[in-house]
Amino acid sequence: MKITKDTIVTLTFRATNARGQVLDDGKTPRAYLHGGYGNTLPGIEKALEGQEAGHAATLVLAPEDAFGERDESLATTIPKRDFPAGVKVGGQLQGTNEQGQQQAFTVMKIKGDTVLLDGNHPLAGQTLQVALKVLEVKPASAEEVAHGHAHGAHGHHH
Ligand SMILES: [Zn+2]
Known about the structure:
Elements: E1 7-17, E2 22-25, E3 30-33, H1 42-48, E4 56-61, E5 75-79, E6 92-96, E7 102-111, E8 114-118, E9 128-139, H2 142-147
Antiparallel strand pairs: 1-2, 1-3, 1-9, 4-9, 5-8, 6-7, 7-8
The structure holds zinc ion.
């Protein structure tokens, strides 16, 4: 069957960034609910629409089709005295952004009395290369559509 809205797609994908860093080795199959549920990258959904099991492709995904462009307003600094103890460079802390929403910030650098934080996804602004293979396509159950994600061995467990 073809990949259309409300199908469960099981696939493997090997993702690398522009520096050749391997982000996902593609050894573990994953299942996602197709049709704009935000289960996978927008560029993967676009490329797979209408395809069938056995389809293989290598995609180059611009940031807008992957983890989005960087938003420099999410790069911020806080005084070191406001910094929770025990958090190190490379670690994450929860904060609130300008819209008042919860946001995870990565600790980028500690410089004197100032801590540099970045609320962007670590892969924001990066172009990714994704080699993918579709293993299986099947209709989603009513429960999967209601939950907005795939269940089963390679999907969401709960
Ligand atoms: Zn569920």
